[in-house]
Design goal:
Blueprint: E1 28-33, E2 58-61, E3 71-75, E4 82-87, E5 96-102, E6 110-119, E7 130-138, E8 151-157, H1 161-166, E9 170-177, E10 179-180, E11 188-189, E12 201-202
Parallel strand pairs: 4-7
Antiparallel strand pairs: 1-4, 2-3, 5-8, 5-12, 6-7, 6-9, 10-11
Amino acid sequence: TVPTGFYAGYPHHAFHHVLEIPDPNQFYKLVLLDGNGDGWDDNDDNNDNIDNIGGGYLAVYRGRDTLATNLLMYDPTFRGKSIAHAFYPGESPPHYLTLAIQFDKYPRDVSWTLELVKPNNNNNNDDDDKEEIVLAQRPPQWYNERFELLSIVETIPVLDKDTLIGNGGTYRLTVRDSYPCEDDPARICGDGICCDYGEGGYV
């Protein structure tokens, strides 16, 4: 646990924490909290701006080497007071979801998030009282121009069926297409990934 105020006085600095875990073959939850309620955002209230991010990010790697091949979780888009991530540090997850994406001509516009949605511990079944945990995501501009009109497959570790049902959980996949609007680049537009600029899609 890193307490509130630990990073005070270190704007735009990077911190590298090495944590030992008892068992790599299970999921771990990591919760980000922001006292000001704006996450990585350095700007004001213009939350429609695709570039309205303060430059911060959080990355979790398997082992001590911060190599792309060891990357387990990456979040440069955190806004708000808190967000929860879950990740599986083991080498061979026993259960996984496969996401296949066919890109159009603008892969940089595509982003997606897979979340575990389950009731909070207070047993309130209200749809507005759910815990949302990010299992995997790819932020805007993750896919560059080299992916234009190509197909890829993402493999995502997920909970086993019994654990998912036992926790009353479901999965939610959100796929986005976003780019600065032509008439107002400070705002976000989107036209999907099919069909004016290539027959993209996902399954």
